[in-house]
Specification:
Largest sheet: 3 strands, mixed
CATH topology of the largest domain: 434 Repressor (Amino-terminal Domain)
Number of helices: 9
Number of strands: 3
CATH architecture of the largest domain: Orthogonal Bundle
Radius of gyration: 25 Å
Structural class: mainly alpha
CATH class of the largest domain: Mainly Alpha
CATH superfamily of the largest domain: lambda repressor-like DNA-binding domains
Shape: rod-shaped
Strand content: 5-15%
Mean pLDDT: 83
Length: 138
């Protein structure tokens, strides 16, 4: 059994689209869309691909699992609920070039022990990249 009908009905609800408006987007008849939603009919693969691409949903997800509101709104559905889980998350530790360190930084920017001793700001950003934060006084 495919989850396609349930999923397109949920997509319509989240996007505030009537059956007619949704059907018009994909050159379908409103009755055909209703049949998909009620599980009385299954769409052609071309229709599945069009809808999945339009809403940036994988074909596997739209067919094999009931989509969540968070997935459809692109929220992070991996929310941390306990302190133990929070500690396992990896956050970037970004060295900060403060006013006090600015002159030394120009001289020692390539010295790893100098960089390691700089104050750090913890940010929930890509930990694969190397960042440096410069504090500017205006």
């Amino acid at each position: 059994m495919s989850f396609f009908g349930k999923n397109i009905k949920k997509i319509r609800g989240i996007k505030s689209l009537s059956q007619q408006a949704f059907a018009d987007l994909f050159d379908l008849k409103r009755g055909t869309l209703g049949a998909y939603e009620e599980g009385r009919s299954e769409p052609k693969i071309e229709t599945i691909i069009k809808i999945a691409n339009y809403f940036s949903i994988s074909i596997d997800d739209i067919l094999t699992a009931e989509l969540t509101v968070n997935q459809l709104l692109k929220f992070n559905d991996r929310l941390t609920l306990t302190p133990e889980e929070l500690e396992r998350e990896q956050f970037a530790q970004v060295p900060c070039i403060t006013e006090k360190l600015a002159d030394d930084y120009l001289e020692y920017y390539d010295n790893q022990s100098f960089i390691d001793d700089m104050p750090r700001l913890t940010l929930p950003i890509n930990t694969e990249k190397d960042f440096r934060l410069i504090r500017l006084l205006i």
